[in-house]
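step 4 of 6: structure.
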Amino acid sequence: MAPATRAEVCVIACAEAYRGNGEVIASAFGTIPAIGVRLARHTFEQDLVISDGEAHGVRGTWAVGGPAEGEIEAWMPFSAIFNLVWNGKRHIMMIPTQLDVYGNSNISAIGDHAAPKVQLLGVRGAPGNSVYHPTSYWVPAHSTRVFVPRVDMVSGVGNDNATKAGPAATKHHDLRHVVTNLAVLDYADSGRLRLVSVHPGVSVDDVVAATGFELEIPESVPQTRLPSVEELQLIRDVIDPKGLRNKEVSA
Amino acid sequence: MSDKTMTEDDVVRRLRSGMTIGIGGWGSRRKPMSLVRAILRSDLTDLTIVSYGGPDVGLLCAAGKVKKVIFGFVSLDSIALDPHFRAVRQAGAVEVAEYDEGMLQWGLYAAGIRMPFLPTRAGLGSDVMTVNPDMRTVSDPYGDEVFAAMPALNLDAALVHMNRADMHGNAQFLGPDLYFDDLFCMAAEDAYVSCEEIVPTKALTADAHPSTLRIARLLVSGVVEAPKGAHFTSCVPNYERDESFQREYAAAARDPQQWKAFVGEYLSGSEADYQRAVALRDSQAVSA
């Protein structure tokens, strides 16, 4: 069997973000996180609830890029999802356009909000997600364009801004992981982003060079764990037989 | 019981420039597009639009109908961004109030149950609080937390599209998601429902559970029979989103010349003309 590609290492890192989560909705944006949550549920985190992206919770393990195939176990229209967001039983992995050292994310607009240089999606559910339930991020192209000293529009709330906003904002605020095409990060006690591991073939210096602010870097930084043979087979044969992961992160 | 059936143009005659209008659906799903097209044909202007936005927002902005958009996102779903909305935003040509999408729901719900605001954690710590300087906070009277006070989004009118309705305004969704159409209707002085088909009341529950009847006539001022009225957005199970037409829309929206041609072909006549032009396009695609 061919050795794991970078995309496959990223899948494992995304799956690992859900380890120990138990019975929560695993919402994942992007192809690689979608593969990751399905892999996690199929193997070590079987209680995760996964939506078909329409209005149903669906069991089973099916290929990305096609319709959900499995038993419908719940009706989850947007109104139900919104309620569960505020109820807290969800862990989301979002794709930020910008992310700063405290985990503030921007998906709304670049530049002045009244007349942005670039209009993006809008804040969507990010302000609520980030103060109501665990939130992680997936960055398919780790660069100084994404990892910026200051985001233009705080959509998802970072550790510093949650603290400033007071106990109502910090009570359920729980930023977990940032998985990128280069590395895995989490947050130090200071609330700042910290390097956890680098993917095979990536050096700490590579990560530092691609990050537009100073990261917390432990004395020794391990390599991100590699997929097992079973996991590789699952990714290649069952969850992503068309290789869509390679369009998001190339080898 | 009154017969509330009317046409798209009857609905638009009841609207006024400067009104705050909520539009149901979600992104590029089950949007009341025939009503939106009727507004495009009208001389209405200075509208404030409240929407989980899709091409409704883009089209109205492109036509210069909009003063302000109250939104959490504007997306065509399979195409991430609406090019018209992007263009007017980047030109600074519309005012906005941008909220978390759950805050938007809360604002509609507050209006629907006649509260001036509802408390929430959503928004706290984010720039939703800074780009909306009128946004206030409220203290927990039982404890010491301080929450965002999402203001009621009181609507002059709501426009929604459903699968079926009766002539009295009882309306039914048969797809997987109601979205927030019930809240839009509750939040509005007058709610207008377009639908694929107007049927006798007893037909509504002949083949569907009563729980699909989520908009009751007491919330509805007018009902419009509009087959394919949500086109080119989806109205499942009647039809899926017209992806190729949506791609044509988005491509045309990026280029002023192409957009002029698109308007000439699809948006310069009546709703019947629109549906004929779409049908002709489909038949040409089949024969090609």
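step 5 of 6: annotate
 - Chain A touches chain B through 47 residues (CB under 8 Å).
 - The first strand of chain A starts at residue 25 and ends at 28.
step 6 of 6: archive
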